[in-house]
Amino acid sequence: QTVVTQEPSFSVSPGGTVTLTCGLSSGSVSTSYYPSWYQQTPGQAPRTLIYSTNTRSFGVPDRFSGSILGSKAALTITGAQADDESDYYCVLNMGSGISMFGGGTKLTVL
Amino acid sequence: EVQLLESGGGLVQPGGSLRLSCAASGFTFSNYAMHWVRQAPGKGLEWVSAVIGSGGGTSYADSVKGRFTISRDNSKSTVYLQMNSLRAEDTAVYYCAKRDGSGSYFFDCWGQGTQVTVSS
Questions:
Q1: pLDDT band at B102 (very low <50, low <70, confident <90, very high)
Q2: A-interface mutation test, from B6, B45, B98, most A Cβ less than 10 A away
């Protein structure tokens, strides 16, 4: 059973840079998985940040960027702000209409 | 403006059934695949099911396969999730999400969710 892996938690200082990753329990993440990233605050619906590896969704600040780093997809936040404190989820397209979410990363800004 | 509005959630006993609806507006509904995603209390997001624009193709997570059925009525711009044989572990907020139409395989719009609680 393939699992999409994310760091459970991460912390960053205000103004700092943090990179969250999204991997596979077996194999490498490539652009063929069309990795996308979503931000969620408690009690709210997810918000789309990045799609197709590195394309920012409409209205998303350019301090958010996506890439492939080695064998994983990555979400980098440059110049972190207090309101970036959220849960972040990656999603991979597995084909045949199936998507898989990572377990999510809880980001603390302090 | 693209909008998705879920309804139909509630409290149901284990083994019971529930049908969720998601009414869409602001786009040509039949052109887009629609998905259901859920989130158990204090847990992460979990993909549940998808249906293509025509309704002719569906897919399911292993955790719900054989118990849940996704369908859509394009004349009503509505997608449904019929949930049978419900278990305590199906307790979650259920979101419907619109798939993009550009071939980039991401969710470009989300509803606000509907709560499903399975408990005796």
A1: confident
A2: B45
